[in-house]
Amino acid sequence: MKLYHKTYGEGEPFIILHGLFGSSDNWMSVAKLLPKKYHIVLADLRNHGESPHSDQWNYKLMAQDVRDLANELGVEHFHLMGHSMGGKVAMTLAAEFPGILTKLIVADIAPKSYPVRHQKIIDALLSIDLKHLESRKEAEDKLAVYIHEAGVRQFLLKNLSRDSDESYSWKLNLEVINKLLENVGEATIPQETIDTPTLFIRGSHSDYVTDDDVAEIRKYYANAKVETLGNAGHWLHAERPDAFVETVLDFLEK
Predict the structure, then answer these.
(1) What is the pLDDT of residues 140-157, one digit of tens each?
(2) N vs C: which end of the chain shows fewer Cβ within 10 Å?
(3) Is 190 helix (H, G, I), strand (E, B) or coil?
(4) Long-range contacts of 126-130 (CB under 8 A, 24+ apart)
């Protein structure tokens, strides 16, 4: 599958992957903080953003998509960073294609399995009758019944597209994501030890990566470094972008 992507800067290739319900747009502010010596590639994963939809959706396929994107760009070796679901895609790629990553960065996710956490969001999005939707404000009011946090609603509404005929549609492949949502929680534990220098960054207010998870991570990633970003939750790169970028660059440039 040919992924939609945006590029910034020149130099060392650095591919960045978003999480569930996200897109490449979520990383634009971070990309602009990174030095131009990096060739930043922001990709939309399948069934998200501007990338194609597919009835097949799992980590191995998404990792292959990213590998194909690197081939399309003529990149043999690259840094790879992913947040949440994107972090699991990144871990899967490291395991499936050993030796192609220069460095790996995983933001607030562990290789363990997770229970389904996002069914409420799926239900909220599916509650909107797009055929009769008249405005984005109406869509937000529908979401507010399920989701109280205004910031989360605005994040989700980035997936709402106004078409040429003035009708609305979702950029997300909601039907498939709903059907295969359990795939997002699957473990991405490698069968062989990963030797690639790897940075795991977790938010101090997030419960996605616990202290017990850190011990497990070190079993599978021989050259793993784990950093905790203070005063940050699961969306650590959006909550503390400057500190997040400083942590990333400290790892990349040493």
Answers:
(1) 999 999 999 998 999 999
(2) C
(3) coil
(4) 126/174, 126/178, 130/167, 130/168, 130/169, 130/170
Give the mean pLDDT of the chain. 96
Strands of 198-203's sheet in order across: 5-8, 38-43, 12-17, 78-83, 101-107, 198-203, 224-229
Q: Which of 23, 24, 84, 206 is catalytic?
A: 84
The tokens of 230 are what?
């203070």
Q: Are 64 and 96 in contact (CB under 8 A)?
A: yes
Q: Which of 18, 83, 234, 237 is catalytic?
A: 234
- Choose, from 175, 204, 205, 246, the residue flagged as catalytic: 175
Q: What does the alpha-carbon distance between residue 170 and residue 162 come to, in Å, rounded to a whole number? A: 9
Residue 171 to residue 22: CA distance in whole angstroms: 10
**8-state DSSP, 52:** P
pTM of the model: 0.96
Q: Is 77 a catalytic residue?
A: no
Integer Cα distance of 236 and 244 in angstroms: 7
Domains of the chain: 5-113+187-252 (3.40.50.1820), 119-179 (no CATH)
* Catalytic residue flag (residue 84): yes
